[in-house]
Design a protein that fits this description.
Distance between the termini: 14 Å
Strand order of the largest sheet: 1-2-3
Number of helices: 1
Radius of gyration: 15 Å
Largest sheet: 3 strands, antiparallel
Strand content: over 45%
Structural class: mainly beta
Number of strands: 3
Shape: elongated
Order of helices and strands: EHEE
Amino acid sequence: NKVQQETFALEASASAAEMLKVNIGEPILGILRSYYFGGNIGLASFNQHYSQDRYSYVTEINLNAER
């Protein structure tokens, strides 16, 4: 019934740098997404992404949502 997403900068570890084909210690983006069911976390997903021009974040806010 709820999804929480946290986006943050971090330094590429050796394994992340190899996977993303960047230098170790280069800034990359981390995204932690948690899915809640009945108030408890049912699933959490962590992803590492390139920074710079390879990532974009879009948010849509519905101002007419029912409260």
